[in-house]
Every structure is written in C-alpha cells, then in structure tokens.
Amino acid sequence: MKIGILGFGSMGKTHLYSVRNIPFFFSGEHNFEVDCVCTSKIQTAKFASEKYGIPNYTDNENDVIYNDEIDVVDICTPNIYHYETAKKSILAGKHVYCEKPLAVTYGQARELADLAKQKGVICGIVFNNRFLSPILKAKALISEGKVGRVLSFSIKYLHSSALDTEKKAGWKQNKDVCGGGVLFDLGSHAVDLIYYLLGEFDTVLGKSQIAYPVRTGMDGQIWKTNADEAFYMLATLKNGAHGTIEVSKLTTGANDDLRLEIHGERGSIAFDLMQPNFLEFYDATLSEGTYGTRGYTKIECVNRYPSPGGIFPGIKAPIGWLRGHVGSYFEFLSSVEGDKQFSPSFDDGAYVQKVLECAYKSDEKRAWENV
Predict the structure, then answer these.
(1) pTM for the full model?
(2) Which CATH code fits 132-319+352-365?
(3) DSSP codes, 180-211
(4) For residue 157, what pLDDT is reported?
C-alpha cells in the first residue's frame, strides 16, 4: 500500500515515523510504504526525500492525488487547505488520512464526510490521543459501568507557546491560515476526547481570549493577533453530564499538558498526558474503612495493548506521545486493507467541527449555543 504525504512539517515527519514503525509495534505482515512527499517548495520536498529515503517528491499535490500508484493521501497541510485537497482526493478514489481539524467550517467537514461515504473510500481524522493505552483503558472502564452515571468532567490542554511576543507567530496562530485559533488546534483534541469517552454534546458556552493583541507576525513584522490564544468552554452533554473545557497557549510552565477528569456516581477517572503510562481510577463502591480504603489507584497501562499490539518493546515498557500516532495510523491502514470503517472517521471529524463552530458562535453572541 503506497502513501503520499502532503506537507512535511512536524506532523508530516510524525506520520512518516508512524508508518515505518508499525512493523515493530504490531505483529503480522505489513506492507505499507510512504512513496512520495509533497511540500510547497521543491527544495524542501527534495531534501525530505533524500534525508528520509522517500522514493519520490514533488511540489504539486496533484502529482500525488492523481497518481495511480498512490493508495492513500495523507494530509498534513495547514487547515485552510484540507477541504479542497481532501475533496479532490476522495473524488479521485483515494483513501484519506487527514490531520485535525477536518476543515474550517462544519459545512465543509459535513460535505467531506458525506462524499467519503458516497464514494466508498476509507477516510480518517487524526485524533491520536484516542490510541494511548490509558485513554483506551478509560473507555473500557466507562463502558463497563465502573464510573456509573457521569456527573461532571473537566479537560484542559495547555501550552506556553504564545507567551513570547517577540517570537514569530506560527501558522497555527494565524486565523487566515489556521481558520481559527487555539480552539481549532488544541480544542479539537479536547472536544474529541469528551465526545469519544462520554458521547454527544448538548449545549456549549464559549469565551475566547487574546492576551497579546500585537505581536511579531510570520514575516517578522509587527502584526495584529487575529486568532484566539486561549479558549474556555462550559458544556452539557446529552447524557446530562456538565463540564469545562479549557485550551490555552498562554499557560506559563506548561509543555504539552493534557489533563482529563471524569466524575461519576460509582467512580472517577483522571489522566495526565505528561504521565502517559498511567490512568488513575477511584472506585466509590469500596467501603470507607476505619482508616480508609478508598483512594485513587494508579493503573499501569504502559504498553499493555491487546494483540496484535504490545509486542515491542514489551508490555511492561513505557509508552510516549508517538505511540498514539503509531496506533492511529495502524488502525487506519488496517481498515483500508480490510475495507472496513475507521474510527475516528470523517463523520467524527465533522461532529467535532460542529462543536467547535458552536463554541465560536457562542463566543460571538455571548450566549449558550445548542449543538
């Protein structure tokens, strides 16, 4: 199965790493190859091809999309280009693996999801955190009823990357290229995890923040900030749970801090991406005891994936951020091989886009928005 990667920044490299490491982490026979890399500048594409041993390179995405040898188009370009590229790829009969968010509007995302089903191709969105072992364990505990009826939740995804105003803004800070701000970048992951673990949203109340209205732009000149640097949400879910979502690039001391808490009638769950090997679980069904028997249990999830995963470097070995990407790509390519639906699909990506759009509408209207 041949893959063409469009865009080769940090995520393009991550996807290449993921494809090439699938044979290490998953048993069985695997025949996946990144055959071509495409970037906007031919020199960059040539450099990537030579350094990473990718057979072909180009600066024209059509060379990938309309190449009969390519089976999968992998989209790692800025958000505003996702819609047109994905649409062309689907119409060309390609399977598509697309970085989040799927598009910049719900209308675009919904069209892509419907088109994918119409054309019968497998299309997946990259929500890699779903494939970390503690998140999969959390999903299992919730599904088994260990948490009981969910009452509340809290999720925070925090960076510190917008604090230095002298540093050139990246494209993810520019609404003209990103289509949104931190809500699109980090918020898409946070919203997806709540959707994946707890179900659909009912209402949202959103508030954006721009702490630095003027900063250094992408060209090094003084620039007026046009995208949210932090975003705060209250949300209710269709199952009755209430919660908060906070995403920010204004958090002093943060690295890649994704923190999740879920509280139910029978138990609670806590996860911290900076401690990716563990899930904490509180079992409220235990008796309190004279000196206490309750308390959060640290479950060592590490590399304890079910077959065919967990074979390397062993089930007791710690995992890291990249393991979620390897798992996501393996499941996607396995779905293409087996001609079966992949989750998170473009339908899932469209749903997340809908929630994000409702949050922005809420911020504009300063009122609750029905999802």
Answers:
(1) 0.96
(2) 3.30.360.10
(3) SSHHHHTHHHHHHHHHHHH--EEEEEEEEE-S
(4) 98
